[in-house]
Design brief:
Number of strands: 0
Distance between the termini: 27 Å
Largest sheet: none
Number of helices: 3
Radius of gyration: 18 Å
Number of domains: 1
Order of helices and strands: HHH
Mean pLDDT: 91
Shape: elongated
Strand content: under 5%
Structural class: mainly alpha
Low-confidence stretches: none
Helix content: over 70%
Length: 99
């Protein structure tokens, strides 16, 4: 995902790089939450509290899906920015990407 984010960031013009920076910050925050959750789960396991594997899997799957969704929306936004003014381009977002 980091590779895909860097590729998208390279496609952005200088004035729009802050969009990719925002997504990177959200990724970092999600990674930090997952790290904190992993520590909590480990301390609970040491204390004898049983972990539910399906709940843990759902937690990490939802983080992955959130990251994937953010990248997909960012990519659609970048595509719309790259095709701004192209009358044949079918916009991903009806409200456009005008500032």
């Amino acid at each position: 995902m980091e590779k895909r984010l860097k590729e998208i960031q390279q496609r952005l013009s200088h004035e729009h790089k802050d969009i990719a920076k925002y997504v990177k910050h959200v990724f970092d925050a999600l990674d930090q939450k997952a790290k904190e959750h992993r520590k909590l789960a480990a301390s609970n396991a040491l204390a004898g509290i049983k972990l539910k594997g399906d709940v843990e899997k759902a937690y990490y799957d939802s983080i992955y899906e959130m990251k994937k969704l953010l990248l997909d929306v960012l990519e659609k936004t970048v595509n719309d920015m790259e095709h701004k003014g192209d009358k044949w381009w079918e916009k991903n977002f009806k409200d456009g990407v005008n500032e």
